[in-house]
Amino acid sequence: MKKFSLIELLVVVAIIGILSSFLLPSLAQSRDKAKQAVCKNNMKQIAILFALNADDNEGRFPESTSHQWPGYGPVSWDDNLSAYDGRDLSTTQKNAGKLNGSDFNNDAGIYQCPTDDIERLFGTDPDCLPLTYSASAFFDNNGIDNKSRGIIGVTWVGRMPYAIKLNEISDPSNTISLAEIMRTGQMVGRYWGSGVNADTINSTPELIPHDGLTGSNYLYTDGHVAKTSFYKTISKSDGSLASTSNITDTQWDAQ
């Protein structure tokens, strides 16, 4: 039997190395696409939870409320979905300000994109569950604020709890309900960070997963999910780009 020479073996190893270098980028792209697919599926499941919640709450999206409005605790919209997602949180858990990761096997489930690896801290407490998805925010400020015309409003002094009804949205397939952002203080069960507007997305591109401002996932109020450019989301019907200080007539405008 003929034996391979050292040179022949080295040539074979070199060829295998070259072929592997061609395959590695493809494998990395496949992993990224798989993560994006899981992320989209998460958002679609949340859309189903939104619909179930609406059936029981006069057609409304779930609210986020703070302790600063009499009679309300610091409850996030994801807390209010717990009756439908299998967690069935107690009132004490909802009012805790955030959920402990250790109480849920450190698994945020459908509320975390696989790409989201940002450490969360509640002050200095790391026992948190990451929340990747924030609802489009609504601020009234004694009159609708054109910077934030989304589906939910977080209460504080002088601001009533608010969540829009699905049937009040004129163009559901072009109206954002959830966007992706990975903030250190944003976590499951915390009302702060449960809402976001276009201005915050635009000013913190490093916190947007996947391809950042050029391509991340958005959930629309009709229930479909699309990976799209942030700049498309702030495009007006006449084709011009809106300022993030006035998102009227864009995909961020649910009003």
Q: What does this protein structure show overall?
A:
The protein is of the alpha+beta class and 255 residues long. Helices cover 27% and strands 9% of the residues. It has five helices and seven strands. It has helices at 6-56, 82-85, 91-94, 198-203, 230-233, and strands at residues 133-136, 152-153, 162-163, 176-180, 195-196, 216-220, 225-228. Strand 2 and strand 3 (162-163) form a beta hairpin. The chain is globular and about 85 Å long. The termini are far apart.
Question: What is shown here, in short?
Answer:
This protein has five helices and seven strands; from the N terminus they run αααβββββαββα. It has 255 residues and is an alpha+beta fold.
General shape: globular
The number of distinct structural domains comes to 1
- Radius of gyration from CA coordinates: 22 Å
Report the total helices. Answer: 5
User: End-to-end distance, in Å?
Assistant: 80 Å
Name the strands of the widest sheet in spatial order.
Answer: 5-1-4-6-7
Tally of strands: 7
Strand content: 5-15%
N-to-C SSE string, H for helix and E for strand: HHHEEEEEHEEH
What is the average of the pLDDT values? 89
Structural class: alpha+beta
Largest sheet: 5 strands, mixed
- Low-confidence parts: none
What helical percentage do the residues reach? 25-40%
Main location: membrane
Subcellular location: Membrane
Keywords: Membrane, Methylation, Transmembrane, Transmembrane helix
Membrane topology: Single-pass membrane protein
